[in-house]
Design a protein that fits this description.
By secondary structure, the chain is mainly alpha-helical. The chain folds into two domains: 13-43 and 159-215, Endonuclease Iii, domain 2 (Orthogonal Bundle), CATH 1.10.1670.40; 48-154, Hypothetical protein, domain 2 (Endonuclease III, domain 1). It is built from twelve helices and no strands. The longest helix has 19 residues, at 197-215. The model is unreliable at 1-6 (pLDDT under 50).
């Protein structure tokens, strides 16, 4: 029998605030981070094929660049459904700003969904680690894509994308660490924040954005 999810889905500012309050109780170092970052808003994206395509769009891009490309991509007829996406030419999709690699990644995902090999709907019921394992078992989906999909599309409460560069920078600065943590070190740092790791990630992304706006990009 699948275990129940451990905390509320992060689909509202109120739910996130409750989780962050719990996080500060777990780790008091997060109190000053919360005070500096201010209110944290949810990021809600569509589920299913459209959602994971949007996550792929954002890989290794700034938020601004990803938003501009996604705006063009979603206006192209056929891009948001796996069946019709498979009928589109690479030229048409790449004209929206997609790289060849992203075109092929989304195509592989669409093929898996159409073939019944990838079922995104049942992720709603899985614990985070199990859901990530399920997603990364499919070609074209790496850990970052899986974790961000679970956070922003499924609203999963206990995911921390430890390979995200902005999070690594923010955690180093926010916790006063001597060096930027490695992915392995970041996983260990975030482990005590369970079952609220998604809210911790949102908190540090917000912290990073405020720091960037006030003092320039963190190096």
């Amino acid at each position: 029998m699948t275990a129940a999810l451990p905390s509320p889905r992060i689909d509202s500012a109120e739910a996130i605030a409750q989780c962050i309050d719990a996080l500060v109780g777990i780790d008091p170092r997060l109190g000053p981070v919360r005070d500096f970052a201010g209110p944290v808003q949810p990021r809600i994206n569509p589920t299913g094929f459209a959602g994971i395509a949007k996550v792929v769009t954002g890989q290794q891009l700034s938020v601004t660049s990803a938003a501009a490309i996604w705006s063009r991509f979603e206006r192209l007829p056929g891009t948001l459904d796996p069946v019709t996406y498979l009928t589109l030419s690479e030229e048409a999709v790449r004209a929206t700003g997609f790289s060849g690699g992203k075109f092929r990644t989304v195509r592989v995902i669409a093929e898996a969904i159409v073939a019944g090999e990838l079922d995104l709907d049942h992720l709603e019921t899985l614990p985070a680690a199990e859901a990530v394992r399920y997603l990364v078992a499919h070609k074209g989906i790496g850990p970052w894509t899986a974790e961000v999909y679970l956070m922003f599309c499924v609203g999963h409460p206990d995911v921390f994308p430890a390979g995200d560069l902005a999070l690594l920078k923010a955690v180093q600065h926010g916790l006063g660490l001597d060096a930027r943590p490695s992915i392995k070190e970041m996983i260990a740092i975030a482990a005590p924040w369970a079952p609220y790791r998604s809210s911790a990630a949102l908190l540090f992304w917000r912290y990073f954005a405020v720091m960037r706006d006030r003092e320039g990009i963190l190096l």
